[in-house]
Design goal:
By secondary structure, the chain is of the alpha/beta class. The protein contains 14 helices and 24 strands. The protein has two domains: 210 residues, Alpha-beta prism (UDP-n-acetylglucosamine1-carboxyvinyl-transferase, Chain), CATH 3.65.10.10; 209 residues, UDP-n-acetylglucosamine1-carboxyvinyl-transferase, Chain (Alpha-beta prism), CATH 3.65.10. A hairpin with a 4-residue loop joins strand 8 and strand 9. Helix 1 packs parallel to helix 4 and helix 5 packs parallel to helix 6. Bound molecules: uridine-diphosphate-N-acetylglucosamine (UD1). Uridine-diphosphate-N-acetylglucosamine (UD1) binds next to helix 1, helix 5 and helix 6.
Length: 427
């Protein structure tokens, strides 16, 4: 198999304008949600990323007609969908395919789904998703040997469901199924992330009745049928944050267009605390954020929290930035265990980071990281290493970039447009 990596010649200030793509985490939920309609949905502002491509293939395997040739627009005609068994390798290869659980259960009252690879009940469980489906009246069975979940219901009936943890995935998945349940559903202690709201807006465009998304409680009145619609996906909060951090990390001056500034408040606040200037603006067509940095970052404390707190997906890029802080910064990860795989790689670049209890990192800033060969272990770790490579002196080779392709559209092209020296290489 061809090996691809990014070669980055670091130490160049990022300057200029970059436009943000559609939100990955909204897209990967809205594409499966579109099959609830049993008609045609046209989705716009989709990012060109591996996860979207993978979902297209999964829907086609199920018999859905998908037209995805026209720029960032996908036409999904699910009238032809007959197969409720999503068991292929493509399904288990991507986590977000679990949204087919709610979507197929909602529309067909039965589904068989291959689960995301690895141990399901381990580090990233889906117990809250299953609890929600059961509360709606589904019989849910886990086949741990084959790593498959089966759910079936005579009738889906609205219920009051309290989530034990705030989970983006469980909130969205149960919302999908509940849209077509009989009667009313109340979801308590739900996630409030921008993409939860985006999915709710999309469902409402299909004729669903979802109220309260963006607060702690979502109320849903079930509908027997939903209809097709057109919908444009919101800009990507995490891609925006990654460019904001990359600008600051390279002592840059970058205007980031097609953003929703309110989604970025936690990141803007932390960057400003570290000494960056963050300016919000509106050029008459788009909202933008401009991030300017002229000094080594001040050491700050960052704690990841559910929205509107600081997103865990930006913890890793933020750590790369803070490697050059003028003092000791602290990062506390409260959402996921073991989300410090990037630390080993940053250390190869000279970073001084100590870990405590696998959830707290103390980053003792050094004047600059130095180029090295480093390996992405997941999507956001990959983004972190890109930020590190851009800021470092010398040449950095970031390997395993298939992880980055899952979630960042044209990352190298966008960075090149800002003056970065980054090349996609293969052998
Ligand atoms: C989503 C995002 C991911 C982001 C994460 C947290 C998508 C496609 N992915 O992932 O980028 O990092 O939110 O913002 O939107 N949990 C349980 N039981 C469950 C579900 C979750 O205990 O049934 C726990 C998880 O282990 C984790 C926490 O809840 O500790 C939050 O996870 P969750 O919000 O569900 O993350 P994802 O939806 O997987």
């Amino acid at each position: 198999m061809l090996k691809e990596w990014y070669e980055i010649k670091g130490g160049h200030r990022l300057e200029g304008t970059v436009t943000i793509s559609g939100a990955k985490n909204a897209a990967v939920a809205i594409i499966p949600a579109a099959v609830l309609a049993g008609e045609t949905c046209v989705l716009e502002n989709l990012p060109h990323i591996q996860d979207v491509q993978c979902l297209k293939e999964i829907l086609e395997e199920l018999g859905v007609t998908v037209d995805y040739t026209d720029g960032d627009c996908m036409r999904i005609d699910s009238r032809t969908l007959t197969n409720t068994k999503a068991l292929s390798e493509a399904v288990s290869s991507m986590r977000a395919s679990y949204y087919l659980l709610g979507a197929l259960l909602g529309r067909f009252h039965e589904v068989e789904l291959a689960l995301p690879g690895g141990c399901v009940i381990g580090a990233r469980p889906i117990d809250q998703h299953l609890k929600g489906m059961r509360a709606l009246g589904a019989h849910v069975e886990l086949d741990c040997e084959r790593n498959i979940v089966r759910a079936k219901a005579e009738r889906l009936i609205g219920a009051e469901i309290y989530f034990d943890v705030v989970s983006v995935g469980a909130t969205i998945n149960v919302m999908l199924a509940a849209c077509m349940a009989e009667g009313n559903t109340v979801l308590c202690n739900v996630a409030k992330e921008p993409h939860v709201v985006d999915v709710a807006n999309f469902l409402n465009m299909m004729g669903a009745s979802v109220k309260g998304a963006g607060t702690d409680m979502i109320r849903i009145s079930g509908r027997p049928r939903l209809h097709g619609c057109g919908y444009a996906i919101i800009p990507d909060q995490i891609e925006t944050g990654t460019f904001m951090i990359a600008s600051a990390a390279t002592m840059g001056d970058v205007i980031i267009k097609n953003v929703i500034p309110t989604h970025m408040e936690a990141i803007s606040a932390k960057l400003m605390e570290s000494g960056a200037r963050v300016i919000e603006g509106d050029d008459g067509r788009d909202f933008y954020l401009r991030v300017i940095m002229n000094e080594r970052p001040r050491p700050i404390n960052v704690k990841t929290l559910p929205y509107p707190g600081f997103p865990t997906d930006l913890q890793q890029p933020m750590m790369a930035y803070l490697c050059a802080a003028a003092g000791v910064a602290t990062i506390n990860e409260t959402i996921f265990e073991n989300r410090f795989n990037h630390v080993k790689e940053l250390r190869r670049m000279g970073a001084s980071i100590s870990l405590k209890d696998n959830n707290t990192a103390k980053v003792k800033g050094i004047p600059a990281l130095r180029g090295a060969d480093i390996y992405a272990t997941d999507l956001r770790a990959g983004a972190s290493l890109i930020v590190a490579g851009l800021a470092a002196s010398g040449t950095t080779n970031v390997h395993n970039i298939h992880f980055i392709d899952r979630g960042y559209e044209y990352l190298d092209k966008k960075l090149t447009g800002l003056g970065a020296q980054i090349l996609r290489k293969e052998k």
